[in-house]
Amino acid sequence: MLSKRLIVCLDVREGKLAKSIKFVDTKDIGDPVEKARQYYQDGVDELVFYDINASRSNQDIKLKFVEAVAAQIFIPFSVGGGIRSIEDATKLRLAGAEKININSAAVQRKELISEISGAIGAQSTVLSMDVKKTGKTKEIPSGYEIVINAGTVATGLDAIEWAKNGEKLGAGELVVNSIDADGTKDGYELTLTRMIADSVGIPVIASGGAGKPEHLYDAFAVGHADAALVASIVHYGEYTCRQLKEYLNGRGIKIRMKF
């Protein structure tokens, strides 16, 4: 059985660490490079860097910030936001990103998943999915819809079907980010996470809603996630990565404990 992973998300806006609730009311909360170094030293397994303005504003990710973060850490580092081509992915890899996260552009042109996976490998290609609960309809049989451009555009795509298609097209990992749970600290959207985890054969990362260590345990034990992504609870100093891992280890979750 593979170890579960703890991942910290660094949402970056104009070079500043930012945090929102349900993708709105975004506030700047610090320096992403400093925080990356802090989490690495505290034993986090991976970091994810999202440029939250890139897709919405049709911008490119600022490579200098990727380079600055990569210089501080020696763990897997994933980057997303505004990636539209193999060239974008290659630039980020050369800047220090080990994995490439694609989201909105993949929905708009699904071939992008296969192109990037073919160029850098499925193990480095992550499909990030922003999902909103809509209720079951003929078009959205799962009751969960994919939204893009930082949650501003509904797509009509069913989340479960998109997850399956993403795997077929070459994604090696899925991030399942619930907009309804994002920043609330009320817990992950376990129904959604489990439905997707049970529908695919690649690792699934639970994202959105972590507020206490019990929520991470639920993501693994109930949601069948392979990794849990956190943000607010570590950014605001409520818990350290070390404390979260110690709690999970004490509950019988297999997780790396070497600090």
Structural summary, described in words:
By secondary structure, the chain is α/β, with parallel strands linked by helices. The chain has a single domain (5-250), classed as Aldolase class I (TIM Barrel), CATH 3.20.20.70. The protein has ten helices and twelve strands. An eight-stranded parallel beta barrel has the order 1-4-5-6-7-10-11-12, surrounded by seven helices. It is globular and about 45 Å long.
CATH superfamily: Aldolase class I
- Outline: globular
Approximate strand percentage:
25-35%
The CATH topology, please? Answer: TIM Barrel
Numbering strands along the chain, what is their spatial order in the largest sheet?
A: 1-4-5-6-7-10-11-12
Mean pLDDT: 89
The total of helices stands at 10
Radius of gyration, whole Å: 17 Å
Helix content: 25-40%
β-strand number? 12
- Which CATH architecture is right? Alpha-Beta Barrel
H/E element sequence? EEEHEHEHEHHEEEHEHEHEHH
Task: Name the poorly predicted regions.
Answer: 23-27
* C-alpha termini separation: 21 Å
List the helices and strands and how they pair.
Elements: E1 5-13, E2 16-21, E3 24-30, H1 32-41, E4 46-51, H2 63-70, E5 77-80, H3 86-95, E6 99-102, H4 104-108, H5 111-120, E7 125-133, E8 144-148, E9 153-158, H6 159-169, E10 173-178, H7 190-197, E11 204-207, H8 213-221, E12 227-230, H9 232-235, H10 241-250
Parallel strand pairs: 1-4, 1-12, 4-5, 5-6, 6-7, 7-10, 10-11, 11-12
Antiparallel strand pairs: 1-2, 2-3, 7-8, 8-9
Helix pairs in contact: 8-10
